[in-house]
Amino acid sequence: MRPLCLAAxxxxxxxxxxxxxxxxxxxxxxxxxxxxxxxMSARPQVEGxxxxxxxxxxxxxxxxxxxxxLISKIPDEVYRAIYDNDPGRFHQRYSETEATDLRLxxxxxxxxxxxxxxxxxxxxxxxxxxxxxxxxxxxxxSYHIDRLRNAPAGHFFDVITHGLGAMPSFANRVDVVDxxxxxxxxxxxxLSQNARSDDIPADKRDTLSNSQPVIDGPTPGTLEKxx
Length: 227
Hints:
Layout: H1 2-15, H2 18-22, H3 59-63, E1 65-66, E2 69-70, H4 76-85, H5 99-117, H6 119-122, H7 131-134, H8 146-149, H9 153-162, H10 176-192, H11 202-210
Antiparallel strand pairs: 1-2
Helix pairs in contact: 4-5, 5-10, 9-10
Protein backbone atom coordinates (compact mmCIF):
# COMPACT_ATOMS: atom_id res chain seq x y z
CA MET A 1 0.00 0.00 0.00
CA ARG A 2 2.81 2.39 0.89
CA PRO A 3 4.63 2.02 -2.46
CA LEU A 4 1.33 2.70 -4.24
CA CYS A 5 0.84 5.94 -2.31
CA LEU A 6 4.38 7.10 -3.14
CA ALA A 7 3.85 6.39 -6.83
CA ALA A 8 0.57 8.36 -6.81
CA UNK A 9 2.33 11.30 -5.11
CA UNK A 10 5.03 11.37 -7.78
CA UNK A 11 2.42 11.49 -10.53
CA UNK A 12 0.68 14.38 -8.74
CA UNK A 13 3.91 16.36 -8.40
CA UNK A 14 4.75 15.91 -12.09
CA UNK A 15 1.33 17.27 -13.01
CA UNK A 16 1.99 20.43 -10.95
CA UNK A 17 5.27 21.38 -12.57
CA UNK A 18 5.85 25.01 -11.58
CA UNK A 19 7.95 25.63 -14.65
CA UNK A 20 5.03 24.77 -16.92
CA UNK A 21 2.92 27.31 -15.07
CA UNK A 22 5.66 29.93 -15.25
CA UNK A 23 6.27 29.36 -18.98
CA UNK A 24 2.63 29.35 -19.99
CA UNK A 25 1.84 30.66 -23.49
CA UNK A 26 1.44 34.42 -23.32
CA UNK A 27 2.78 37.65 -24.77
CA UNK A 28 5.33 39.66 -22.81
CA UNK A 29 4.74 43.44 -22.56
CA UNK A 30 5.45 45.16 -25.90
CA UNK A 31 6.24 41.82 -27.55
CA UNK A 32 5.68 41.67 -31.31
CA UNK A 33 2.91 39.52 -32.74
CA UNK A 34 2.27 38.09 -36.21
CA UNK A 35 -1.39 37.55 -35.40
CA UNK A 36 -2.41 41.19 -35.84
CA UNK A 37 -1.86 43.33 -38.91
CA UNK A 38 -0.06 46.09 -36.97
CA UNK A 39 2.44 43.58 -35.53
CA MET A 40 1.67 44.51 -31.90
CA SER A 41 0.46 42.10 -29.24
CA ALA A 42 -0.88 44.93 -27.04
CA ARG A 43 -4.26 45.98 -28.37
CA PRO A 44 -5.53 49.57 -28.29
CA GLN A 45 -8.58 50.40 -26.22
CA VAL A 46 -11.95 50.25 -27.91
CA GLU A 47 -12.95 53.73 -29.05
CA GLY A 48 -14.90 55.50 -26.33
CA UNK A 49 -13.51 53.36 -23.50
CA UNK A 50 -13.28 55.23 -20.18
CA UNK A 51 -11.41 53.78 -17.20
CA UNK A 52 -13.33 53.55 -13.95
CA UNK A 53 -13.09 56.85 -12.08
CA UNK A 54 -11.79 58.77 -15.12
CA UNK A 55 -15.01 60.04 -16.68
CA UNK A 56 -14.38 63.71 -17.48
CA UNK A 57 -17.87 64.89 -18.34
CA UNK A 58 -17.70 68.10 -16.28
CA UNK A 59 -15.71 70.47 -18.50
CA UNK A 60 -15.37 73.40 -16.05
CA UNK A 61 -14.22 71.13 -13.21
CA UNK A 62 -11.69 69.09 -15.17
CA UNK A 63 -10.41 71.70 -17.65
CA UNK A 64 -11.02 75.12 -16.08
CA UNK A 65 -13.00 76.04 -19.20
CA UNK A 66 -16.64 76.26 -20.22
CA UNK A 67 -17.25 75.82 -23.93
CA UNK A 68 -13.59 76.55 -24.50
CA UNK A 69 -13.47 79.76 -22.45
CA LEU A 70 -11.54 80.03 -19.17
CA ILE A 71 -13.84 80.27 -16.17
CA SER A 72 -13.48 82.88 -13.43
CA LYS A 73 -15.18 80.99 -10.58
CA ILE A 74 -14.06 77.88 -8.73
CA PRO A 75 -16.64 75.14 -9.46
CA ASP A 76 -19.08 74.27 -6.67
CA GLU A 77 -18.10 70.60 -6.98
CA VAL A 78 -14.72 71.48 -5.50
CA TYR A 79 -16.30 72.55 -2.21
CA ARG A 80 -18.33 69.35 -2.09
CA ALA A 81 -15.16 67.32 -2.63
CA ILE A 82 -13.39 69.22 0.17
CA TYR A 83 -16.30 68.38 2.48
CA ASP A 84 -16.35 64.71 1.46
CA ASN A 85 -12.60 64.38 2.04
CA ASP A 86 -12.98 65.31 5.73
CA PRO A 87 -16.64 65.51 6.80
CA GLY A 88 -15.70 65.17 10.48
CA ARG A 89 -14.11 68.61 10.36
CA PHE A 90 -17.46 70.32 9.82
CA HIS A 91 -19.64 68.40 12.34
CA GLN A 92 -22.73 68.81 10.20
CA ARG A 93 -24.21 67.89 6.85
CA TYR A 94 -22.91 69.55 3.72
CA SER A 95 -26.17 71.41 3.13
CA GLU A 96 -25.89 72.94 6.62
CA THR A 97 -22.21 73.90 6.43
CA GLU A 98 -21.37 77.59 6.19
CA ALA A 99 -19.76 78.68 2.94
CA THR A 100 -17.03 80.45 4.90
CA ASP A 101 -16.06 77.18 6.60
CA LEU A 102 -15.77 75.43 3.25
CA ARG A 103 -13.70 78.27 1.81
CA LEU A 104 -11.36 78.18 4.80
CA UNK A 105 -10.89 74.43 4.40
CA UNK A 106 -10.18 74.90 0.70
CA UNK A 107 -7.64 77.67 1.40
CA UNK A 108 -5.85 75.63 4.03
CA UNK A 109 -5.59 72.69 1.66
CA UNK A 110 -4.41 75.02 -1.09
CA UNK A 111 -1.77 76.57 1.17
CA UNK A 112 -0.42 73.13 2.04
CA UNK A 113 -0.29 71.97 -1.59
CA UNK A 114 1.14 75.31 -2.77
CA UNK A 115 3.97 75.22 -0.24
CA UNK A 116 4.81 71.65 -1.28
CA UNK A 117 4.62 71.91 -5.06
CA UNK A 118 4.77 75.60 -6.00
CA UNK A 119 6.74 77.64 -3.49
CA UNK A 120 10.14 76.26 -4.57
CA UNK A 121 9.84 78.37 -7.73
CA UNK A 122 7.07 80.88 -7.02
CA UNK A 123 8.06 81.72 -3.44
CA UNK A 124 5.86 81.58 -0.35
CA UNK A 125 4.07 84.82 -1.28
CA UNK A 126 3.96 84.18 -5.02
CA UNK A 127 6.48 86.82 -6.07
CA UNK A 128 8.59 84.40 -8.14
CA UNK A 129 11.60 84.35 -5.82
CA UNK A 130 11.54 80.74 -4.64
CA UNK A 131 14.67 78.92 -3.50
CA UNK A 132 15.41 77.25 -6.85
CA UNK A 133 15.15 80.66 -8.51
CA UNK A 134 17.69 82.00 -6.03
CA UNK A 135 19.92 79.13 -7.11
CA UNK A 136 19.75 80.14 -10.78
CA UNK A 137 16.53 78.63 -12.17
CA UNK A 138 14.46 80.73 -14.55
CA UNK A 139 12.26 83.17 -12.61
CA UNK A 140 8.50 82.84 -13.11
CA UNK A 141 6.33 85.97 -13.27
CA SER A 142 4.99 87.32 -10.01
CA TYR A 143 1.34 86.57 -9.29
CA HIS A 144 0.99 90.21 -8.30
CA ILE A 145 1.45 91.78 -11.71
CA ASP A 146 -1.73 93.18 -13.25
CA ARG A 147 -1.84 90.55 -16.01
CA LEU A 148 -2.08 87.67 -13.52
CA ARG A 149 -4.19 89.52 -10.97
CA ASN A 150 -6.76 89.98 -13.73
CA ALA A 151 -6.40 86.47 -15.15
CA PRO A 152 -9.41 84.17 -14.65
CA ALA A 153 -9.16 81.31 -12.17
CA GLY A 154 -9.27 78.82 -15.03
CA HIS A 155 -5.96 80.17 -16.33
CA PHE A 156 -4.07 78.99 -13.25
CA PHE A 157 -5.83 75.62 -13.29
CA ASP A 158 -4.94 75.19 -16.97
CA VAL A 159 -1.27 76.04 -16.36
CA ILE A 160 -1.01 73.62 -13.43
CA THR A 161 -2.60 70.93 -15.62
CA HIS A 162 -0.63 71.45 -18.83
CA GLY A 163 2.41 73.50 -17.84
CA LEU A 164 3.63 76.70 -19.46
CA GLY A 165 7.09 77.87 -20.44
CA ALA A 166 9.68 76.35 -18.12
CA MET A 167 6.95 74.98 -15.84
CA PRO A 168 6.03 71.34 -16.46
CA SER A 169 2.59 69.80 -16.04
CA PHE A 170 1.70 68.84 -12.48
CA ALA A 171 -1.36 66.81 -13.47
CA ASN A 172 0.30 63.54 -12.47
CA ARG A 173 1.22 64.88 -9.03
CA VAL A 174 -1.66 67.15 -8.05
CA ASP A 175 -5.21 65.89 -8.44
CA VAL A 176 -8.07 67.98 -9.79
CA VAL A 177 -9.48 69.18 -6.45
CA ASP A 178 -6.03 70.06 -5.14
CA UNK A 179 -5.34 72.09 -8.29
CA UNK A 180 -8.43 74.16 -7.57
CA UNK A 181 -7.34 74.48 -3.94
CA UNK A 182 -4.02 75.91 -5.13
CA UNK A 183 -5.90 78.32 -7.40
CA UNK A 184 -7.93 79.51 -4.40
CA UNK A 185 -4.76 80.06 -2.40
CA UNK A 186 -3.14 81.97 -5.27
CA UNK A 187 -6.13 84.31 -5.18
CA UNK A 188 -5.62 84.74 -1.43
CA UNK A 189 -1.95 85.57 -1.99
CA UNK A 190 -2.88 88.14 -4.62
CA LEU A 191 -5.34 89.77 -2.24
CA SER A 192 -2.83 89.73 0.61
CA GLN A 193 -0.35 91.81 -1.38
CA ASN A 194 -2.92 94.22 -2.80
CA ALA A 195 -5.49 94.54 -0.01
CA ARG A 196 -6.95 97.83 1.15
CA SER A 197 -8.00 98.74 4.67
CA ASP A 198 -11.62 98.72 3.47
CA ASP A 199 -11.25 94.99 2.72
CA ILE A 200 -10.72 94.27 6.44
CA PRO A 201 -13.85 93.82 8.60
CA ALA A 202 -14.43 96.87 10.78
CA ASP A 203 -14.11 94.90 14.02
CA LYS A 204 -10.67 93.64 12.98
CA ARG A 205 -9.04 96.88 11.85
CA ASP A 206 -8.04 98.14 15.29
CA THR A 207 -6.49 94.77 16.13
CA LEU A 208 -4.47 94.86 12.94
CA SER A 209 -3.27 98.44 13.38
CA ASN A 210 -2.15 97.82 16.97
CA SER A 211 -0.34 94.57 16.26
CA GLN A 212 3.41 94.36 15.80
CA PRO A 213 5.04 92.20 13.13
CA VAL A 214 6.57 89.00 14.44
CA ILE A 215 10.04 88.25 13.16
CA ASP A 216 10.76 84.53 13.16
CA GLY A 217 14.31 83.85 12.09
CA PRO A 218 16.82 86.05 10.27
CA THR A 219 15.74 89.11 8.36
CA PRO A 220 15.34 88.37 4.62
CA GLY A 221 18.49 89.14 2.72
CA THR A 222 20.83 88.61 5.68
CA LEU A 223 21.54 84.93 5.07
CA GLU A 224 25.03 84.22 3.86
CA LYS A 225 25.15 82.76 0.39
CA UNK A 226 26.61 79.33 0.12
CA UNK A 227 29.60 78.95 -2.18
